[in-house]
Design brief:
The chain is of the alpha+beta class. The protein contains 9 helices and 12 strands. The radius of gyration is 49 Å and the shape is rod-shaped.
Amino acid sequence: MAFAAVALLVSTVFATSTYLLARGYLLGQRERVVQHQTFADAAFVQRRLESAGADVSAVLTAAGTPAGHTIILKWRGQWYASALDQGRDAVPAGLRQQLAEGDAAAQRFRSDDGPSLVVGVPLPSVQAEFYEIAPLTELDGILRLLSGILIGGALVATAAGAALGAWASRSVVTPLNRVAVTAASIAGGELDTRLPATDDPELATIVGSFNSMVDTLQQRINRDARLAADVSHELRSPLTTLVGSVDLLNARRDELPERAQRALDLVTADLQRFRRLLDDLLELARSDAGLDRRPDATIDLAELLRQVLSEIGREPTLLSGADDALVLADKPRLSRLFRNLFENAETHGAGLTAIEISRTGNDVLVLVDDSGAGIPPHERERVFERFATGATKRGSSSGTGLGLALVAETAAVHGGSVWCTASPSGGARFVVRLPEIES
């Protein structure tokens, strides 16, 4: 738009100045020619009228004016013309007034036949006023043609400026768009995405620096993921030993004193929380490393939800809505997703109140409501971050802040998403969106 505006401004100024200069030159030249012709004809008529017994009509005919010119003569109070349809009224009143004062004058005006130029010359020696009218129709046509050419040239220049601006803008914006798209892909988890090589020396440095930055970022993320996976894996062996030992103590619980039983209960609960934390860490590490198993099984969503409700000891009657929704999923991971949501509602949301399956477009939605105090709007995105327990303590069912993070990761792996909103009953509502497949 800027290129087009500048091109339009420049071409308009150029066209206007060219037209005005050409018009002034052509009109001036035409006026000089007509004035020279008028004075010559006036001298001829004056000489003839000075002769005794001159016939005015014969004199005007003999003047030999150029084709299209008309002579009008005022002599002894009478008006004569070389054309039958012309007369006193053909001469502008202002010009007649100037000649009455004894001054020669010229004036352009528009008659019924088009633009014309009239030149008046007083002839005091014979008490006459001589007028010659010259048509300017041909000159007007030339000026119209010139104006059309200049306007067309201005439009062509504007279009060329717009095309040049579009090309220049595209050449500048395209690399930036490519960087933006690549950065969005990387932010979406596609860490292998890179900017293509370029031959533009001005962009080569930027492309190289960007790709080098992404390589470093990918290496750091992979290293952190491997560290988490390795640490979690190494902790499983001593944890298994501890769990086995505690299970053995629980098997002989009745032989222990009451104080030791309370201590054993605390240790058992913490071991269960620790084991859940390690499982969550391993799951996230596999996701970060890109080792997720892709969904490959057709799952009846309603049946899956009833099964998960039974596992956590809740009645399947909490479920309502569509019973024929099918999704492509990894059943163990999808079961874990909904178990985390249900246990989160039970532990931190004052109890699970309702589960509803609905459809929107090509997706199926699972709405999970609880009867808690709800989640403030500014916290509704943060609860899905890792270790985000915070003031609401809605981080996960285990209290480690990983449960809802795993829910978000699992939903993304299945091509869906999860978000939090307010429940109509006043608590929190978690919505899981999954692509539906045709039955």
